[in-house]
Design goal:
Belongs to the RecN family. This is DNA repair protein RecN. By secondary structure, the protein is of the alpha/beta class. It has 19 helices and 15 strands. The strands form 3 sheets. The chain has a 6-stranded antiparallel β-sheet. It has a 6-stranded mixed β-sheet with strand order 8-12-13-3-14-15. A 3-stranded antiparallel β-sheet has the order 9-10-11. Helix 5 runs parallel beside helix 15. The longest helix is centred in the middle third of the chain and has 43 residues.
């Protein structure tokens, strides 16, 4: 589970170290206070896209880290083991600079953003406030049913078989149609690959060359500026040290009483003289020990010129050359291999098709078996959420053409009122109904997830009153099985939480900062009262909040 989130200079957060716990944690605050900031920071650690807007105004970089306890997460430990990463902890870190560059680490080892995203899938699930919109798409129905049926890994493997089958089939068709074109393509590839072999662009070399070129090209100007600064400090007629010396000398001739009155000023002038002398020595040392290297600058610019020339020749960006090199090398290897044997390739295509269809049928049987249980589980949650008259079912029909996900089309069907035929979810549910249906489906799916930590971002939109309290009870039940973070505006939901995280925005020193803190019992009462009655907290509102919290925390779920 997520046990700590540390944020530095992200959005309007200057510094935050947040310890998190198991169970259900409610996240509340006034509109615009920054609840989305916490989720955004967590999202960066999970591999979401970053931009320069992530960095707090006036800062050089944003630095976010998330620490997870994975002692009970076998999949996460296996993922780390497969990549030879340390397993003594699970610390994800992301740094975004003001220039827009991003770096990522797992347990102190540099990784790609896609690595963060891949590991994050084993650590935490995020159910957004727009999840009910995703439920209008049939691909979401298929994914949720597969999760419930425990077929996620099998479907991923099926996708690999499907893409392999399609690639071999395409290759066979190309070879059958190509004829002499294959030989011409082989010769072109040999020339292109040989040219890229000679370039031998190393990983990270382009970025290193660009940084070095910038530094070398500006070094002469930097040295001139440093010499000018040193001259300004020196003891010539117009230098700062000379002027300070004259100032000290003249004040030193003042009457003793005046000198006592100016004691602080004299001390500061003396200290300034010492500081400027030290600065002058440092500047002279820098100028004397730093040498221009025009030869190295020429070498760097020549190397960059060659990289850009070949990139233009291949109509790609310079940073894409390494990927291009790999793709062309792979294609050349395939052309020079034994794939010209059409009979053998045709047999391989047939075997790949049979393997795909066999696994697709097995997954289809598992889906059929799980669909009824899934439908009944959602139906039970709908009744709990005040939609007892609605009927929900999972319809599975054959696809017209094979897909990476299999041979089945999965569609969630619902009848809002007795006697009406079931229709697709997108054609029946109103906005309020859709929010409750979405929550029912997510709760059922979450109960069968292998990931114990989940974030629910305002999934209670569109509900209120008694239904809101039931929503809170549902989330609390899930929290009893793992860790639930739920962003909510509803006091009925927040009161059900085991823990309560409050977020507020404050103006400090002409800037706006977000603060986050776990509330104690008294703090929870005040926050619930605010959510119930607004800014002014009356005794009656506070009493209502206390009653709500006591009832929620002592209720048997």
């Amino acid at each position: 589970m997520l046990i700590q989130l540390a944020i530095r200079d992200y959005a309007i957060v200057e510094r935050l170290d947040l310890d998190l716990h198991d169970g259900m944690t409610a996240v509340t605050g006034e509109t615009g206070a920054g609840k989305s900031i916490m989720l955004g920071a967590l999202g960066l650690c999970l591999g979401e896209r970053a931009d320069v807007g992530s960095v707090r105004h006036g800062c050089e970089r944003a630095d976010i880290s998330a620490r997870f306890d994975i002692t009970q997460l076998a999949d996460a430990r296996a993922w780390l083991t497969e990549r030879e990463l340390p397993q003594d902890e699970c610390l994800l870190r992301r740094v975004v600079t003001a220039s827009g560059r991003s770096k990522a680490w797992i347990n102190g080892q540099p990784v790609t953003v896609s690595d963060l995203r891949a590991l994050g899938e084993h650590l935490i699930e995020v159910h957004s406030q727009h999840a009910h919109q995703a439920l209008l798409r049939e691909e979401t129905h298929l994914r949720l049913l597969d999760t419930y049926a425990g077929q996620t890994e099998a479907v991923a493997t099926l996708g690999e078989h499907f893409h392999h089958w399609r690639a071999r089939r395409r290759r066979l068709r190309d070879l059958q149609e190509s004829g002499d074109e294959v030989q011409a393509r082989r010769q072109l590839l040999r020339y292109q690959v040989e040219e890229l072999d000679q370039l031998a662009l190393a990983e990270g070399e382009l970025e290193t060359l660009e940084d070095e070129q910038t530094q070398l090209a500006n070094l002469e100007e930097v040295l001139g500026d440093a010499q000018f600064a040193a001259d300004c400090c020196d003891q010539d007629e117009h230098g700062a040290l000379s002027l300070l010396h004259h100032a000290n000398a003249r004040l030193g001739n003042a009457p003793e009483q005046t000198q006592r009155q100016l004691a602080d000023a004299l001390a500061m002038l003396s200290e300034a003289q010492i500081q400027i002398e030290e600065a002058a020595r440092e500047l002279h040392r820098f100028v004397d020990t730093t040498e221009l290297d025009p030869q190295r600058l020429m070498e760097v610019e020549a190397r960059l010129g060659e990289v850009h020339r070949i990139a233009r020749k291949h109509h790609v960006m310079p940073e894409e050359l390494r990927d291009l090199h790999q793709r062309l090398s792979d294609e050349l290897a395939s052309l020079e291999g034994g794939e010209h044997d059409l009979e053998a390739l045709a047999e391989e295509v047939e075997q790949a098709r049979d393997t795909y269809r066999q696994q697709a049928r097995a997954i289809g049987e598992a889906r059929l078996e799980a669909a009824r249980d899934f439908g009944e589980a959602v139906q039970a949650q709908l009744a709990f959420l005040g939609l007892g008259k609605a009927t929900f079912e999972v319809a599975i029909t054959p696809r017209e053409t094979p897909q990476a996900e299999g041979l089945d089309q999965v569609r969630f069907m619902i009848s809002a009122n007795p006697g009406q035929p079931s229709r697709p979810l997108s054609k029946v549910a109103s906005g309020g109904e859709l929010s409750r249906i979405s929550l029912a489906i997510q709760v059922v799916a979450a109960q069968h997830s292998s990931v114990p930590s989940m974030v629910f971002d305002e999934v209670d939109v569109g509900v209120s009153g008694a239904i809101a309290e039931i929503v809170g009870q549902l989330l609390r039940r899930l929290g009893a099985q793992g860790q639930i973070l739920t962003v909510t505006h509803l006091p009925q939901v927040a009161a059900q939480a085991h823990h309560h995280l409050h977020i507020e925005k404050r103006a400090e020193h002409d800037t706006t900062l977000t603060h986050m803190a776990l509330l104690d019992d008294a703090g929870r009462v005040r926050e619930l009262a605010r959510m119930l009655g607004g800014v002014k907290l009356s005794d009656r509102t506070l009493a209502h909040a206390r009653e709500m919290l006591d009832a929620s925390q002592h209720a048997q779920h």
